[in-house]
Design a protein that fits this description.
Layout: H1 16-36, H2 41-50, H3 52-119, E1 125-133, E2 141-144, E3 157-160, E4 163-171, E5 176-180, E6 187-192, E7 198-202, E8 213-218, E9 230-233, E10 245-254, E11 261-267, E12 276-280, H4 284-325
Antiparallel strand pairs: 1-2, 1-12, 2-5, 3-4, 3-12, 4-5, 6-7, 6-9, 7-8, 8-11, 9-10, 10-11
Helix pairs in contact: 1-2
Length: 326
Amino acid sequence: MSPVVKKKKEKFKLPGKYLLLIVSAACVALLALTYSVPAAEEPINGLAGYVVVPLQNGVSTVGGWLVEKSEQLAEIRDLQADNKALQAKVDELTTENASLQQEHYELTKLRELYDLSQQYSSYKMTAARIIAKDSGSWYHSFVINKGSADGIAADMNVIAGNGLVGRVTGVGLHWAKVMSIIDDNSNVSAMVLSTQDNMIITGNLTEYEDGVIDFSKLTDRADQVTLGDKVVTSNISDKYLPGILIGYISTLNQDANKLTKSGQITPVVDFEHLDTVLVILQIKQTVENSSGDASSAATTASDTSAAGASTANATTADAGSNVEGQ
């Protein structure tokens, strides 16, 4: 036989709505009894004082609390809506401010480039934007967004900020690669502007950690070069056009041979924050070749004139001989 399972008796639970209905009915009954039986008014009032009044106070308190919370919730919703609108306005203004800052930055850079182009107004130039760079903190080797289609060729000089950046080392149709003067493979023939004494500036990325690069072989026989002197590209440079500002002498030391000096210069260009550069559309060799071509043309013209004169003289002599023979 299977064991008999006793079912647990379920506890009786009166729903809250029925309880409220009973209490309300009792209140109505008490009110009716008070009006219908005047003799029972005093005990009923006493009973109401103990039962109904606290209940009414509780209902009133709960009702007031609910109204207060409802108002607070409505106020919170309004504040949230206002906050959302304000946040959207802040985002809009932030975007607008960033755009204005970018425009201000670009305008400042363009003004700097314009001022720089005025300093070297004798050269034809084109502006280009940097689109890539080699790894590292400095712009020692980078790519610009203009190339042979824009008239750019290898060895053209590149300037920015207040002076020399470097030169073009490779060219594509719509791009060009630039090696800056701080690159380890860079050598620039330069001179001190005040004394015209020549030197060699060598790129050094390690030294540029301190914002300087090296120079050597300075011939300062008159001992006139001092700290802070301007250094520009030399007339005898085979890659760089003359007179472009490079930087200022920051350290100066006598070499062991007692004939030359070496030290460091501080470049005028900030090689950490380059964005747009100017490319001078002229090559140093082109300038020299143009002078050579002009000399050759003059020599050729002179030779042609001399040849013409010799031919004329020979013809006259032949004519004279013929007359005499006749």
